[in-house]
Amino acid sequence: MTPELLLLLYSVILTFILIMIPAGNALISNGAAAQGGPRDNLPEPSVLNKRATRLSNNMLENMVLFAPLVLMAHVADASNATTLLGAQIFFYARIVHAVVYLAGLPWVRPLAWVVGVVGMGMIAFQLL
Fold first, then answer.
1. pLDDT confidence of residue 35
2. What is the mean pLDDT of the chain?
3. Distance between CA 51 and CA 30 in Å, rounded?
């Protein structure tokens, strides 16, 4: 397994964790019966739960781009120091993005997002 594929695996694990945060928060807030039902009449989610949901959606949107890039680099045997650095930048930027998003820190979140996009761009550039 290439290091980029390992970082993809780590990113999948991070994605799962980020999906579980709002799900767990809703379960605690609303109870198992409400969450296990059709969820038609749930109370308004907390600010933290709304933020965590946006965070998990954002991570999913980014994984749709990151995963194919890593897989294409692997299949094309294009793995090199630049693709590895790009995957590392993406993964660590996404961790920073998650922490600052949940904390509600302004201006740092979009910067962390841009850094992650740069990491993906580094991988894409090697495929061109």
1. 66
2. 92
3. 17
Which residues, other chains included, contact 73 with Cβ-Cβ below 8 Å and sequence gap of 6+? 4, 79, 83, 123, 126, 127
- Position 96, amino acid: V
Q: Which position has the higher pLDDT, 40 or 79?
A: 79
pTM assigned to the model: 0.91
Is 55 buried (19+), middle (13-18) or exposed (0-12) by CB count in 10 A?
buried
Take residue 125 and report the two structure tokens written for it.
């550039």
Beta carbons within 8 Å of 88's beta carbon, 6+ residues apart = 7, 119
Higher pLDDT, 47 or 84: 84
Residue pair 100/64 in contact (Cβ under 8 Å)? The answer is: no
What is the amino acid identity at position 103?
A
